[in-house]
């Protein structure tokens, strides 16, 4: 995950996943990378942005429809990651699904 995702013209959807980590990696980084790779191959996926500062992380994934979000939520490999997250990786998390109705993008011309 690097840089700002260039999304299409709205409307589309954003899934905001905020999380607090437990101590230790316990395979988290490997699984997180696999999930980004797998999500990027899913129908309706538009991109992902994420940051982690110590224990707090925020990941925003962008999707073309609520149906695409539902299919990703129900993906077998993603369910395995969700279960491990609840059991081992997260002390707390929140998930918010938002409809993007307006956007602006700025990039300095070099």
Automatic annotation (TrEMBL):
Keywords annotated in UniProt: Monooxygenase, Oxidoreductase
SUPFAM superfamilies to which the protein is assigned, alphabetical: Dimeric alpha+beta barrel
Domain ABM: start-end pairs: 15-83
Pfam family, one: ABM
Taxonomy, superkingdom: Bacteria
InterPro entries: ABM_dom (IPR007138), Dimeric_a/b-barrel (IPR011008), Jasmonate_Hydroxylase-like (IPR052936)
Molecular function, one GO term: monooxygenase activity
Keyword Lipid biosynthesis attached: no
Keyword Oxidoreductase attached: yes
PANTHER family: ABM DOMAIN-CONTAINING PROTEIN (PTHR37811:SF2), BLL5343 PROTEIN (PTHR37811)
Protein name: Heme-degrading monooxygenase HmoA
Organism in which the protein naturally occurs: Croceifilum oryzae
């Amino acid at each position: 995950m690097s840089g700002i995702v260039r999304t299409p013209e709205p409307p589309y959807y954003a899934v905001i996943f905020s999380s607090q980590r437990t101590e230790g990696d316990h395979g988290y980084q490997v699984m997180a990378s696999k999930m980004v790779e797998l999500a990027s191959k899913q129908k309706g996926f538009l991109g992902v942005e994420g940051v982690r500062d110590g224990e707090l992380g925020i990941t925003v994934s962008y999707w073309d429809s609520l149906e695409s979000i539902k299919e990703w939520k129900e993906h077998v490999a993603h369910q395995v990651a969700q279960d491990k997250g609840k059991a081992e990786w997260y002390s707390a998390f929140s998930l918010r699904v938002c409809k993007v109705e307006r956007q602006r993008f700025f990039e300095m011309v070099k």
